[in-house]
């Protein structure tokens, strides 16, 4: 997170020094700052792993958008057709996320996907209870949700 804040400050400094506060100028400053921070990463331990997070985040966005579109079509098809194909149910998803921030971000991404909703977190913070709209195969749903968790934790850690 510190690396991202430094990157934003460098982009803002670039826009200020160039006198151009447009989007492309800020984006160019962000890319320039990212390159500079990637070079300084070996020298400053606080930046450890920052240069690998942005590509992972971009890959995650692509993955999440694909999952979001797929889930939206599934829900829209179920709503638009006269027969209901949903099979709702509650599952317990064991998680490896440890901090409150990791659990909160994971829960939000799972709840953003249509057809799933976080109901609760266990008291030991090891299990998420999730309502799934299409629970035909519990193992498949758990595998999909664990893939989201793996990708989220890849960015955060």
Detailed description of the structure:
Helices cover 62% and strands 11% of the residues. α1 (2-18) packs across α2 (23-40), α3 (50-80) runs antiparallel to α5 (138-156) and α4 crosses α5 (138-156). It has two domains: 2-47, no CATH class; 50-156, no CATH class. With 157 residues, the protein is mainly alpha-helical. β2 and β3 form a beta hairpin. The longest helix has 31 residues, at 50-80.
Overall radius of gyration: 20 Å
- Portion of residues in beta strands equals 5-15%
First-to-last CA distance? 10 Å
Can you tell me the overall shape? elongated
Total DSSP helices: 5
Percent helix, as a range, is: 55-70%
- Structurally, the number of domains stands at 2
Largest sheet: 3 strands, antiparallel
Describe the structure in brief.
With 157 residues, the protein is mainly α.
Topology:
Elements: H1 2-18, H2 23-40, H3 50-80, E1 89-94, H4 100-112, E2 116-121, E3 127-132, H5 138-156
Antiparallel strand pairs: 1-3, 2-3
Helix pairs in contact: 1-2, 3-5, 4-5
């Amino acid at each position: 997170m510190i690396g991202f804040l430094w990157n934003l400050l460098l982009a803002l400094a670039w826009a200020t020094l160039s006198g151009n506060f447009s989007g492309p100028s800020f984006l160019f400053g962000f890319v320039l700052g990212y390159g500079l921070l990637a070079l300084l990463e070996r020298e400053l331990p606080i930046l450890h792993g920052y240069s690998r997070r942005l590509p992972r985040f971009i890959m995650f966005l692509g993955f999440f958008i694909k999952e979001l579109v797929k889930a939206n079509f599934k829900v829209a098809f179920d709503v638009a057709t006269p027969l209901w194909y949903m099979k709702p149910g509650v599952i317990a998803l064991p998680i490896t996320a440890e901090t409150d921030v990791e659990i909160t971000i994971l829960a939000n991404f799972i709840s953003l996907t249509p057809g799933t909703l976080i109901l609760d977190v266990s008291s030991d913070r090891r299990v998420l209870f999730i309502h799934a709209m299409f629970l035909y195969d519990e193992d498949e749903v758990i595998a999909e949700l664990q893939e989201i968790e793996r990708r989220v934790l890849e960015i955060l850690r």
